[in-house]
Write a structure and sequence with these properties.
By secondary structure, the chain is α/β, with parallel strands linked by helices. It is built from 16 helices and eleven strands.
């Protein structure tokens, strides 16, 4: 029987071996040559693993990763956000844009060459003209729009401002423009929460969404080892938490937060204990959740609960299953109901002292503003997913 030889690595495999999974997904979708518009969302303000010229793993900002890795072969790479305006990554591209802008001013009677606009409508109009010129010359272009939720915010259609409508139309048109689709052209929209973006863009078949996750334990361990490279002895002298234990016990934290912990130990000689680490994690996650999550810290157990014998027996069985690593035998949640003053919150707080995993309390995440509630909930759910295993208490659930 002839064993087939392994398939040769594809072009995608050759160039993306060291990419994180989300970047491989981005590259795969881009190489279909059917999409020009991508939304990067999730953990977009964290570091990204990459490689230097010597093949060593380094951690860079998303902006640098896009510039030096995903869009390294592009002739023109530019960034735009409402605060900084248009920014090119090299001076030659900036000079070329300024020359094109002088021609734009002559044709349309504007004065943009002296002072670049920053508002989305005028910026997108200028960029559209420039893109068409350079794509016609065969140039390869990448346009990264950061804080995209400020350019195409989520809102009811009746509440769109004139600026919102114009920006939306520009980006929708670019996503399926035949000239752009047939060229090496990419638009990357960056936003922390997908729900904060206009859903006409998000749900468009011409747009691909790529989620950047919070690092898992394997990724955290790789970061810790890379950061400590050659400094393990100095770390061990001031920490009772081993590098592996640090990676294991920091679910929900990103690379920047891990870097803060490690730098404090190495640079300031701060003693890192498990209690200190627990306090740091609590502070980091509560801050990351904008105060909408609160850790339930208690020394109480179900022995403190008077009465409710059947409920306590059931909760103890659940606690035993959790401690034994058998969440598969448990329901996804419990509805604890009863009159005011019967000890519902107290019982679950005591339950938190027996389960052996963290418990957080979900606080009010609602807002009066359109889209903010959905964005808050998306942020919380992403954090909770990264923190697993974790228990969540929703007190006064009927008020949610």
């Amino acid at each position: 029987m002839t064993v087939p030889s392994p398939a040769a690595p594809t072009l995608l495999d050759q160039y993306t071996t060291h990419y994180p999974d989300w970047a491989k997904e981005f590259a795969r979708k881009y190489l279909t040559k059917t999409l020009t518009q991508f939304i990067l969302y999730g953990n977009v303000r964290d570091l990204v693993p990459s490689r230097d010229e010597d093949g060593r793993t380094i951690y860079v900002s998303l902006r640098d990763f896009l510039t030096d890795e995903l869009f390294a072969s592009r002739d023109i790479v530019l960034f735009y956000d409402r605060s900084s305006g248009i920014h090119f990554i090299d001076k030659e591209s900036q000079r070329d844009f300024n020359r094109a802008l002088s021609g734009y001013d002559t044709i349309f009677g504007t004065d943009y060459a002296k002072k670049l606009p920053k508002d989305p409508v005028r910026v997108l109009s200028v960029l559209q003209n420039y893109f068409r010129l350079r794509l016609g010359d065969g140039k390869r272009i990448a346009c990264i729009i950061d804080y995209a939720e400020t350019v195409i915010p989520m809102a009811e259609a009746s509440m769109y401002s004139s600026e919102d409508r114009n920006a939306l139309v520009f980006l929708q048109r670019w996503s399926h423009d035949p000239v752009f689709l047939s060229s090496d052209f990419t638009i990357a929209l960056i936003s922390q929460n997908l729900t904060e973006l206009n859903q006409q863009i998000v749900q468009s078949p011409y747009t691909a969404e790529v989620s950047i996750p919070i690092p898992d334990e394997k990724a955290r361990l790789a970061f810790v080892e890379a950061y400590l490279g050659g400094q393990e002895d100095a770390y061990d002298r001031h920490s009772e938490v081993s590098p592996r234990a640090l990676a294991s016990n920091t679910a929900g934290l990103g690379y920047i937060q891990l870097r803060t912990i490690l730098a404090d130990v190495l640079e300031n000689r701060t003693e890192l204990t498990f209690d200190t680490l627990s306090d740091l994690i609590k502070d980091f996650i509560e801050a990351e959740a904008y105060g909408m999550l609160e850790f339930v810290e208690t020394d109480w157990t179900l022995d403190m609960v008077a009465g409710h014998s059947h409920a306590k027996a059931h909760l103890r069985q659940a606690a035993t299953a959790l401690r034994n690593g058998r969440p598969d035998v448990l329901p996804m949640g419990y509805l604890v109901s009863g009159p005011v003053g019967t000890g519902k919150t107290f019982s679950i707080t005591c339950f938190a002292g027996e389960i052996g995993i963290p418990m957080v309390k979900l606080k009010n995440f609602r807002s009066q503003w359109q889209g903010v509630t959905e964005g808050n909930l998306e942020k919380i759910l992403n954090l909770l997913e990264a923190m697993t295993p974790v228990a969540v208490m929703i007190d006064e659930a009927d008020a949610m």
